Input
Amino acid sequence: MPTVRETTYDLLRSWGLTTVFGNPGSNELPFLNGFPADFRYVLGLHEGAVVAMADGYAQATGRPALVNLHSAAGLGNAMGNLANTRASGTPLVVTAGQQARPMVGLGSVLAEPAMTRVPEPQVKWSFEPARAQDVPRALSEAFHLATLPPAGPVFVSLPLDDWAQPVDDVEVAHLGGRRVRAAGALPADLLDELARRLAGARNPALVVGPEADDERALPLVVALAERLQAAVWTAPTPPRCPFPTRHPLWQGVLPPSIAGVGEHLTGHDLVLVLGAPVFRYHAYRPGPWLPPGTALVAVGSDPGTAARAAFGDAVVADVGTVAGQLLDALGDLPPRPARPAPQRADAAAPQGAPFRADAVFAELARALPEGARLVNESTSNTTQFWQHLDLARPRSLFFPAAGGLGFGLPAAVGVALADPSRPVVAVLGDGAFQYGVQGVWTAVQHRLPVTFVVLRNGTYGALSGFVGQLGVAGVPGLDLPGLDAVAIAEGYGLPARQVASADELADELAGVGKLDGPRLIEVPITAETR
Ligand SMILES: Cc1ncc(Cn2c(C)c(CCOP(=O)(O)OP(=O)(O)O)sc2=O)c(N)n1
Ligand SMILES: [Ca+2]
Output
């Protein structure tokens, strides 16, 4: 009879989960025993970095990823980035080693009787198999739940003494061949109703979100926008780039406030939201949910976000499928007047340190090679980022979906692991750099083509902006003197340099696509006053 470990590795192979992102402890060693040659172990030096690397890898590949952490302590360290994973709907199968079954109830070291409660509510499902023989089926359920819409992280606790136990191979014979998929199309009546509303709209707008950012959905959503000559907005606080930022119909990113969204949608009689929650507000600025005369319909895969919205209609369905159905149902509409392209921000040339953030982003936009991917975690200048970066391909941008810092740097490592032929640039605040810095070591070990751009303004700049918005004063803990990202990077073996002149900045950014390994540049910038 095969063992639990042998059966599990066969199942992981059948699901394509042959890369394990992990940080091991004694509880995990029996799982890793005789690690198969066709598997890859990507070591992260902190569990937060491990989860973010796996998250970036899964988002960039569009496939689920496997994580193996050390017991409750490792799982606890991972919670910040699990919140980002949950919010972005990334399919991760997260596992952690439990103490041997006879020891769990004795208060033993590395035993956690409540292990399944540790990751809640940041996972879709959390389970510890009742017997060793249930481990393969539990992992099968975890894999399918992680990938079924709404996709997201799941957790399985794995007692260390299960792996050597025998499995009745008849019992598990069908698990690896099961295909479990969701459909996600609109029924005819709903399709007809939505197509008629769109065809009859005087001034339609699309608001697009992360579920539109994949190889199948993105071209269909662009075609639908062009067919309707609709104004297109990216939904507030975007963790991905779901519409080309230089497309003439793209109007920009909606502001993350109730009043702000209402103001920006004024004049549109019908708003179709594709693949975004309605909406992920951030700053509390109350106002009408929608302007008078505006109706809204949202299409997305998550019943929770559909039910939670305070206004508008919603349909739980697959964005790419629905966009394709609407294109067929609309057919050729009477020609509509071309919508004037919005005014784009001018591309200021960098003048030297301390640089203006918009000038750095304009230089980065000029230097980025075709196919490059970006991870952004510089929080006080996201407006300038979106104004200057030219992003058109699917899966080109990643931002922490729950706003938790410590995602960006390691996620960039995972994105680069997904496809080392596409260079990756991680734009990081000097504060954010500290939350996930351990990811630098993994980038060095794997010689990944990642450029870490640390924007040094010596402060938690975004929080200074909130001081004004929240009407507070005399707040401590916002200044970051004396942080030397170059010295820190070199401590991990990462080549690094601070740039001072415009030429030095241009030279460094020009090298983004020609790297044979990671590098870091620290760019002194002026602190934004918002
Ligand atoms: C894990 C974690 N801790 C704290 C915060 C709070 N926070 C903090 C500390 C910010 C300042 C980030 O500073 P930075 O240097 O990375 O970037 P900026 O100076 O451009 O804001 S923005 C923000 O929401 C957070 N989002 N996530
Ligand atoms: Ca900063």
Q: What stands out?
A: The mean pLDDT is 96. The radius of gyration is 24 Å.
